[in-house]
Structures are given as structure tokens and as C-alpha cells.
Amino acid sequence: MNQQENYIILGLGSNLGNKLANLRRAFQLLKAEKKIQIISVAPVYQSDAMVLPTQNPQNNPSFFNTAIKCKARLSPQKLLKILKLIEHKMGREKNSEKWAARIIDIDILVHGSNLYQDEFLTIPHPGLYTRPFALFPLTDILPQWFYFLPDHKDKNNIQNWGSRFTGEAPFHTKQIANRIDTPIMYGILNITPDSFSDGNNFYTIESAVSQTQHLIATGADIIDIGAESTRPGALQITPNTEWERLQPTLIALHKQVDLNYKKISLDTKNAITAKRAIDEFKIHIVNDVTAGYDKDMLALIAHSGVKYIFMHSLTVPPQHEKVVARNTNIISELLAWAQTKIAMYLDVGIKLEQLIFDPGIGFGKSQEQSLLIVKYIKEFKQLPVPILLGHSRKSFLQLLTNAQAKERDFATAAMAQHLKNSGVDYLRVHNVGMCLESIKYEESLR
């Protein structure tokens, strides 16, 4: 059966600003279009930009590209009109120079089995024969389509492009680990001697830099760096000790790691530590497991404008005997708590768009309550702020596996698809690559 007849394939590209964020935003705007039903999304590819002889390649940075498979009862012309409106909404100039650097580019690559051409549009996209950054993602989500490519003088050259993973194809096109249809991936970097699953693994500057590079290479969008353990029974440290651990590592990360629009989040409950990191390193996010126990934290967040993750906890570090009453509806309890906190934050001058809610798996909850939070995480989408979940390697997974903490990455990744489908906005995990692979394998069958 010719399955290509049922689908429209859109190609998305960006090479200005935060390219991955641009692709994510375009994806969200397409999802919001009532006339378009998204079926699946391809991995992201990086490639050199195409330039005219008169253009300076240095003014045209490398592209990130992906493709989206969808359905829409729209003619090519009507669909194109919607796509141009999305490009305009994202800030693309209407009459920009051909192949100029752009914040977003959305092309119709395939429109079912239609062959279409007018002065504005050719379908299938004529560049498919020479642009692996368009054809590779297309065939990721519609593999059989290659066999329906109309004959063309460049068709046989496609066989010589080589692997989509090595960069040997034209324009050095290669698939990268990041995706745009997943939660934003928060890579955990504990520079502590005593964290519950990786204490002392990344305590030296060299190991911290190496782990950061690994997290980024495997798809982390944000690096969450913490210098104080919050495992049960951990000893609290002073802000000065915390900063003595953090400062040299932050210096090394900014000097040795190509962050390339990756964001740094600071996992701290101390306002003085957060202020130092904001002032000296312009960190983007503060991750506070106490939700503002330090009386100076909220004023700092309001003044600085950085994003603020507020987590529900009863005690920090957590204590096994102190949990939410077992006869309590844990979802309703956390919803009410979050709503109260949000109102309080707004009253002290923090903006709604700064806030991210973390239900606090393992902090003041029994293992059964933590599992319920994961199972019914979608309930928290009624809150007016994004949701972050930190379920990685947590003890509640003992309900499902006998594995020790450091060996619970498979269990963590197995839940990633459910969390993605439930609309979780951020996933905070130790093994970013395994979680993304879990999602990729499921998505490849759509």
C-alpha cells in the first residue's frame, strides 16, 4: 500500500539564536493549529548552511533541521499560508534574502502523493535530491517514501551520502541527540562527595567538565549543577563551603565547554549562593528544593528575573518517617500547595513566567505516593506554570525493581515515554541519553 498518500511532511530549520528552542516553538505553534494533526516528529540534524556566492559563510551559522509528519485537510496553498503566518509570528522577515540566516524556516516537503508546482511552491520539495538535512529527517518518519521519489538526475547520488550519524553526507549533515518533541532535558551534575547515586563521581573539576560534555553530547538542554547533597541523612554544608565547590567548576565549564545556548541551572537552597552565581556567571535558573525557606531567596528571584523551580518538600534532606499522611489524596494536596505558593510568589514580585513546579518525588512522600505522582502527573497540567519531574534513580523505583540506585537508569528511562505523553515540560535525570533513546524507539514506530 502506498502509505505516503496519507501524510504531509513539513521540514523545519533554524540557524539564528537558540536554534533548538526555535524548532521547539515552531513545533508548539503547529500543534496549536486546529487544522493540523501532528503524527510524529523526526530527530534533529545539524548541517552547514547553504549560502550564495555573494554571502559570507561566517554570517550564516550551521542549521538545525527536523521534520514533522502530520495530517491536514488543506490544499498546499492554504497550508503554506498557515506556515508563513507561523514564521512571521516567530519573527522571520517576509522578504528576507534567499538562504539568509533565519530564525525559522518551514517547508512543505511532501503533500501526500500530490505533485504540485506554481510560482511559489513545488511539491515534492526539489531540494530533497541534494539536501540530506531535508531527506534524512523525512525518511526517519516515513521510511518508505524514498521509493516513491520521482525520477531525477540526482536521485542516484543519494545512495552515496553515507551514514546519517557521522557527518560525511553533504553539508556535513548528521543526526544529533536532541529532539523537539520531548520534555526539555535537565542533566544532573552533582559535584558532591555524598550524593545518593553518584556521590564523588564528578567531584573534581576534570570529571565535572567531562560529565557536562557527555550530558550535552547525549541531548541535555540544561545542566543542573549542585554542590550540596539532599539524600536522606546528608549533612548540610555552609554557603561558603557550597561556593568553594561551585565557583571553580563554574569557571571551568564556561572556559572549557561549548555550552552553545545550553542553560545552567543551580541546585541550591541558599540565596547567597544563588546571588553569587547569578552575578558572576549569569546562571539562568535557580532550582530550590525548599521552595523559598531562605527568606532572601524570593526577593533575589524577583529582582534578578531568572527562572525559579519551586519543589514540594516536608524536610530537606528528606526523612523517611516524615511523609504526607497516607490517607491524603496526594495529587489534590500538591495542587493546593502549588497554587498557594504561586499566589505568594506573585505577591512578592516574581512573574508567572519565571516559575516551574516540581512535585518533589521522594521528598516527604512514601514510595507509593511518589509512584502515584508519576502515574497521574498529567493532573498538574492544570497549574499555570510548567512542570518539572525529578524521578531519576529515586527510591520509589524499588516498587518495580531490585536494582541499586546507580543501576536504576533503565527504570528511569522506561517511564520517560509516559511522562512525555503526559505533557511534563522538564525531565531532570542522570542519564539523559538513555531517556531520549527510550522516547526515540517508541516514536520511531508511530
Structure description:
The protein folds into two domains: 3-175, 2-Layer Sandwich (Alpha-Beta Plaits), CATH 3.30.70; 184-443, Alpha-Beta Barrel (TIM Barrel), CATH 3.20.20.20. It contains twelve helices and 16 strands. The strands form three sheets. It has an eight-stranded parallel sheet with strand order 14-13-12-11-10-9-16-15, covered by helices on one side. Strands 1, 2, 3, 4, 5 and 8 form a six-stranded antiparallel sheet that branches. It has a two-stranded antiparallel sheet with strand order 6-7. The model is unreliable at 1-5 (pLDDT under 50). It is an alpha/beta fold and 446 residues long. The protein is 31% helix and 16% strand.
Provide key terms for this protein.
446 residues; alpha/beta; Alpha-Beta Plaits; TIM Barrel; 2 domains; 8-stranded parallel β-sheet; 6-stranded antiparallel β-sheet; globular
Measure the end-to-end span.
17 Å
Radius of gyration: 23 Å
Estimated helix fraction: 25-40%
Query: What's the total helix number?
Result: 12
Largest sheet: 8 strands, parallel
The CATH class name of the largest domain reads Alpha Beta
Instruction: Identify the strand order in the major beta sheet.
Output: 14-13-12-11-10-9-16-15
Instruction: Look up the CATH topology of the largest domain.
Output: TIM Barrel
Please identify the structural class as seen in this structure.
alpha/beta
CATH homologous superfamily identity of the largest domain: Dihydropteroate synthase-like
Weakly predicted, low-confidence segments: 1-5
Strand content: 15-25%
How many individual β-strands? 16
- List the domain count as a whole number: 2
Write the CATH architecture name of the largest domain. Alpha-Beta Barrel
- In N-to-C order, the SSE pattern is EHEEEHEEEHEEHEHEHEHEHEHEHHEH
Overall geometry comes to globular
**Overall average residue pLDDT:** 89
